[in-house]
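User: Can you recover a sequence for this backbone? Please restate the input before giving your answer.

Assistant: Of course. Working from this structure:
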């Protein structure tokens, strides 16, 4: 057995799964439209472990979504993952959030552009081909009518994630296809984490930090 626990908290979807050799054993997730990770994450971890009839000593590794995404959500998920790794002496595997989101789609041609909301008209986005290989780096970018024209002019472009919803009225090219209601999930992390485990592609637990992409900015409180 190669049993891996997965934690995904980069967006409003709080998601936890456990898998054996890339096969899903149990999953718990909740997307209520707000950030409930602080309350839900640890109960979800306990629930998937109980459902799979596993103890933490049975786990071979812990995988965590590394970002980009919500600053607070990422901090909660990474802190929980690192805590488990330290407590039970397990390796830590990090999964790029946009890559696992791209795995929600299976296409024969064109490209997949997963997007996460970064407020206003800005998104975190990357581009993947039909084999889920990254063909453009992750960027924080402001979306306008000219965004992704180099891909739209060549064929179908599939947009998904909570950042894609606000782009519908701006990106109106006939090759643009918008997939609604998709969020990063611990389900799609399963294959990616197993592949990394087999390659011994692990993180230094003490020094690992989430991939924020942008610095966290505190908005000053308005004077009354």
């Amino acid at each position: 057995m190669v049993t891996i626990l997965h934690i995904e908290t980069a967006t409003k979807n709080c998601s936890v799964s456990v898998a054996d050799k890339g096969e899903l054993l149990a999953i718990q997730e909740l997307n209520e439209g707000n950030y409930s990770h602080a309350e839900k994450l640890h109960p979800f971890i306990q629930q998937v472990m109980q459902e799979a009839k596993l103890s933490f000593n049975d786990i071979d590794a812990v995988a965590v979504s590394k970002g980009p995404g919500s600053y607070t959500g990422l901090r909660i998920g990474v802190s929980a993952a690192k805590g488990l790794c330290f407590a039970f002496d397990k390796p830590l595997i990090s999964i790029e959030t946009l890559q696992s989101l791209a795995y929600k789609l299976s296409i024969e041609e064109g490209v997949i552009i997963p997007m996460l909301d970064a407020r206003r008209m800005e998104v975190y986005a990357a581009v993947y081909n039909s084999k889920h290989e990254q063909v453009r780096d992750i960027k924080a970018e402001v979306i306008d009518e000219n965004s992704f024209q180099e891909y739209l002019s060549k064929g179908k472009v599939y947009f998904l994630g909570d950042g894609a919803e606000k782009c519908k009225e701006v990106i109106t090219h006939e090759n643009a296809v918008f997939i609604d209601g998709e969020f990063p999930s611990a389900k799609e992390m399963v294959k990616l984490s197993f592949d990394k485990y087999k390659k011994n592609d692990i993180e230094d637990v003490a020094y690992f930090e989430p991939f924020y992409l942008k610095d966290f900015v505190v908005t000053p409180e308005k004077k009354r």
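That completes the design. The chain has two domains: 3-96+184-199, 106-179.
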